[in-house]
Amino acid sequence: MSVSRRDALKLAGAAAVGGLLATDARAAVDRDAALYPGGTADRWPIVQGPTDRTSATFIVMAPTVATFAMEVVAGGIARPDPRLLNRLDLPALGVSLFELHVTGLAPGRDFELTLRDDDVGTFDRRLFRTLDLDRPSGRFAVASCMDEGYRRKAITMWETLAREAPDFLILLGDTCYADRRNPRRDEAGMARRYVHTRLGLAWFRMERLVPTFAVWDDHDLGGDNGDRTFVHLPFARRLFDAFWGTTGNSAWRRGLGVGSRLEGFGQRFYLMDDRSFRDPRGTQGGRQWGAEQMDWLFEEIGTDPTPAWIMSGGQYFGLQALRESMEDDQPAELADLLQRLSRIAAPAAFMSGDVHFSAIAAIGPERLGYPTYEFTSSSIHSTVNPGPVGRGKVVAERRHNFMTFDVDTRRGWQVGARSILEGGAVAFARMAAIAR
User: Which residues lie across from 429 on neighbouring strands?
Assistant: First the structure.
């Protein structure tokens, strides 16, 4: 039996979808109509995932019983039909994740993505662009720690980020607090938490979609300080992949675990999986990324002198109580990383999340042979860190925030970093030039 979208929404209301689609989403639409298509309070969440110059991936979360078609149009001309590449059904919740891939596109122009069915016609419309990866400059945003329990901030912080108009977004972990409000810590509870997070964040309802690339940290995994021994690791990987996309293209491809590599705007971005291969805390000589993933990084990064961002959920540097860092927990692995980075031609900078404050820390030339920085972006809406956050940092900010980076590689590697608060206020801003 074919079920229309209208009936699907009624059926889904008895499961997870109906209860969370309404109140906060409608509040967002009512407050800032410029960011949302008209009447989108009951629209399904959509994320634009891995994207390059000529293709884009979209992950649609919809009621499992729904029937719908997707179309991409530019200048009144329909593009090739999107292909369904992957689907994950979550029967107990009545929802499914559909990963769809669109090709035959071009950078520098708007495309219209529509969802429709035979019953009501077109019921959703979004705008998107591909990535003009050949440009030597661009803007990207970085965020981490997204607890949808902060219900107002789960709207206003994402509206603020959207107004910064980044070319793309990188999420460095804790994209879902799968271990929170999940007393049994089981797979059913983890799936519910992923669904609730996707429903609760305004980023997935806005008219203009933005390419989003993600890697995980412990809360996505489903256990605080989780590691490779976590009993639900395979299931957590399936969830994460389904919610963020797995389809490679000319600019983005998967690494090990949920890690990946992105290249564009005269730079390379390495998103490292800091949980799938992590040894339990206290392991003698323990590793965070694991030997195989470290080798993968240097097989990739050692090929040319293009500037490289080394990105991970957890911090690299720092010996501070109650905060994880590679320097504190896996000092031998950090020493290996720095030694190998010091021998390659590409300049490197570090990017992290997790600690619930944003900061820029100067990394002296004794570490790599040249000065560089660790940039930390955390949290966009989660617990505010009550402790001292500025010790040893150039600048730091504990309030809810995210960071944007205006980067230019035409005359060296120039990085303009800003920490943005709710409403667009700038907490701090710094320019950095990174060169060997």
Answer: 418
Residue with token string 């997707």: 70
Taking the C-alpha atoms of residue 278 and residue 221, their distance in angstroms, rounded to an integer, is 12
**Which residue, chain included where needed, has tokens 């938490």?**
193
- Let me know: does 356 contact 382? Beta carbons within 8 Å: yes
The strand pair at 401-408 and 426-434 is best described as: unpaired
Output the six-digit token pair for 45.
Answer: 């969440």
Q: What is the CATH number of domain 137-434?
A: 3.60.21.70
What is the Cα–Cα distance from 310 to 270, expressed in whole angstroms? Answer: 5
pLDDT tens digits, residue range 364-409?
Answer: 999 999 999 999 999 999 999 888 888 889 999 999 999 999 999 9
- The answer to whether 70 touches 114, Cβ cutoff 8 Å, is yes
Q: Which amino acid would we find at residue 189?
A: G
Reported residue count of the chain is 436
Q: Going by C-beta distance under 8 Å and a sequence separation of 6 or more, which residues neighbour residue 38?
A: none
Q: What number of other Cβ atoms are within 10 A of residue 162's Cβ?
A: 21
Per-residue pLDDT tens digits for 5-41: 444 444 343 344 434 443 444 444 445 667 886 655 5
Q: ω before 419 within 30° of 0 (cis)?
A: no
d(CA 25, CA 148): 12
- Per DSSP, the residues of 286-353 read --SS-HHHHHHHHHHHTTS---EEEEESSBSS---TT--BHHHH-HHHHHHHHHHHTTSSS-EEEEE-
Alpha helices, DSSP H only, in 14-98?
16-21, 23-31
> What is the CA angle 43-47-49, rounded to 5?
160
Residue with tokens 């700038």: 426
Does residue 400 contact residue 153 with C-beta atoms inside 8 Å? Answer: yes
**Six token digits for residue 11:** 């059926």
The residue ranges of every structural domain in the chain are 137-434
DSSP letter for each residue of 132-193: -TT-SEEEEEEE--B-TTSTTHHHHHHHHHHHT--SEEEEES-SS-TTTT-TT--HHHHHHH
The model's pTM is 0.93
